[in-house]
Amino acid sequence: MSWGTELWDQFDSLDKHTQWGIDFLERYAKFVKERIEIEQNYAKQLRNLVKKYCPKRSSKDEEPRFTSCIAFFNILNELNDYAGQREVVAEEMAHRVYGELMRYAHDLKTERKMHLQEGRKAQQYLDMCWKQMDNSKKKFERECREAEKAQQSYERLDNDTNATKADVEKAKQQLNLRTHMADENKNEYAAQLQNFNGEQHKHFYVVIPQIYKQLQEMDERRTIKLSECYRGFADSERKVIPIISKCLEGMILAAKSVDERRDSQMVVDSFKSGFEPPGDFPFEDYSQHIYRTISDGTISASKQESGKVDAKTTVGKAKGKLWLFGKKPKPQSPPLTPTSLFTSSTPNGSQFLTFSIEPVHYCMNEIKTGKPRIPSFRSLKRGGPALEDFSHLPPEQRRKKLQQRIDELNRELQKESDQKEALNKMKDVYEKNPQMGDPGSLQPKLAETMNNIDRLRMEIHKNEAWLSEVEGKTGGRGDRRHSSDINHLVTQGRESPEGSYTDDANQEVRGPPQQHGHHSEFDDEFEDDDPLPAIGHCKAIYPFDGHNEGTLAMKEGEVLYIIEEDKGDGWTRARRQNGEEGYVPTSYIDVTLEKNSKGAVTYI
Q1: Cα–Cα separations (whole angstroms), residue 153 to 114, 163, 242
Q2: Is there a single domain that holds both residue 153 and residue 246?
Q3: Strands (DSSP E) along 276-422, which ranges?
Q4: What is the pLDDT of residue 473?
Q5: What does each C-alpha distance from 394 to 263, 390, 471, 548 come to in angstroms?
Q6: Are 555 and 447 in the same domain?
Q7: Range of the domain at 93
Q8: SH3 domain location, by residue (predicted)?
Q9: What percent of the chain has pLDDT over 90?
C-alpha cells in the first residue's frame, strides 16, 4: 500500500491530511502542557497544605509528643514527599513529552512544506509540457486548415478557363508553401506530444509516487512519535508509582503507630502533680454540748483528761523534732485530732464520748470563719513566676523539668569537654611544630573552655541536688504521710516548715487554743532525752567537710544512721555508730528508709 500508486490524483487531499496531522500533534502538545500545569498547581497546593498544618517548631515545648500527633505529622511529611513526586511527574512530562512534541512539530512543518513544494513544482512542469504540446497541436491544426484552403483555391483557378497561367502558378506555389508548413507543424506537434507523454508518465509513475511516499513516511513518523509520547506520558506517571507507594505505606505505618495507651500515659506524665489525694474528713459531732447539761463534772473531767492527752502529744512531738543548729521554734498547737476525744463515765456507770471545751470551741470557729479544706491547685497553673529550681511546679513536673535541664547541661558539658580535648591536641601539635602556630594563642580559649566546664559542673551539681530532693520527697511520700484520719484537716498547697501544707505561704494550720505551760514543763525532758531511734540508713555519695556548727563531716562511701528526715530545707540529720550526730546535705547521700520504723519523724 502506497500513497504514490493509490492516491496519485489526491494531492490536495494529502495536503489537507498532512496539515490535520500536524494540527492534531499540536493539540496533543497543548493537552500535555495543561496537564503539566495541573500537576504543578496540585503539587504547589499540596505543599501549601502541608505547610499550613505543620507545627511551627518555635520551641521545644510545642513539639508533638502524642503518638496521634506524631502520626499526623509523619503523614504530612509523606504527603510533602508525594507532592514532590507530582513535581517530578510534571518535570518529566515537560522534558520528555511536551518539549519533544514541540520540537518535532516544528520539524514536521518544515518537512511537509518542502515535500509539497516539490509536488507543486512537478505539477507545474507537467502543465508546462502540456501547454507546449497543446500549442504545437493548435498550430498544426491551423496550418492544416490554411493548406486545405490553398488547395481549394488552386483547384478552382486550375479549372477556371479564364484564369491566367500566372494566377495558376501563384496558387500552386501557395499550396506547396502551406503544405510544407503543415508538415513541419505536424512534426513539431508529434515531437511535443511524445515529450509530453514521457513527462506525464514520469510525473505519475516516478516523481509523484516519490513525493507521496515521503509524505506518507512523514505522516507515519508523526503517528509513531505520538505513540512514543503517549507511552512517555504514561511512563512519567509509572516511574513515580514505587515512591508514591512508599509514601502511602508510610502513611499506613504512621496510622498503625498510634498507641492510645501511650498517649494516655503521656497525659499522666504531663499533668501529674505528685500530690497525694486529700484524706477523709472526720465526723465532727456538734451535739456533745447536750451532755454538758447532764453532768457538770463531765466538763471538768474532760478538761483535765484533755490536758493530759495534749501534754503527751506535746511530749511526743517534742521527742520527734530536733531543729537545725539547736534552735527550737516556738511551740505550735497541734491540729484537732481524734486524741481530743475520750470516754467519760457517768455516776451510774454508763460511758459516752465527749469533747474538751477547746476542741468544740475550735470546731465552731472553723465553721464560722474557716476556709474550705479542699486542696487547691490554683497556684500550680501556668503563667506563674518561673523559679530557677522549678519549686513553683508540682513535684512530678518539677522532677521532669529538672531532669530535662540536667540532660541539656550534660550535653553542653560533653561539647565543652570535646572542645577542650581538641584544643589540647592542637596545642600539642603547635608545641611539636611551632611553624604551624603559636601554642600561647590557644590559652585564652582553653581558659574560657575550662571556666565553662566548671560552670556547667556546678549547674549540674546544683540541679542534681534539687532533683535528689524532689525524688526523696516523692519516693518516700507514702512513708512520710501521716494517717489520713489524723491529718485530713490539713490543706494541701504549700509545704510549711512544720511539714503541713497551706494555701497561704504566710499561714499555718492552727489547732485549738492550748496552754503553753505544758511545753515549758517538758523542755528539760526534751533536752535530756535519750538519743532518737534510727529510721533508716544512708550512704555518702560525696565527701562533706562539716565545718559549720551542727553539721556532721563524712567521707565518700561512709554509712550513717538516719534519725530525722529532710524537712524541705535540704538537710538530713544523721548519726555515726559512735553516737556523733549532726546534719548532712540531703543531696550528698543515698537514703534508705525503714518502713514502719518507730520514732520516725515524718511530714506530708
Answers
A1: 59, 12, 102
A2: yes
A3: 341-345, 351-355
A4: 64
A5: 21, 9, 12, 32
A6: no
A7: 3-56+63-266
A8: 533-594
A9: 24
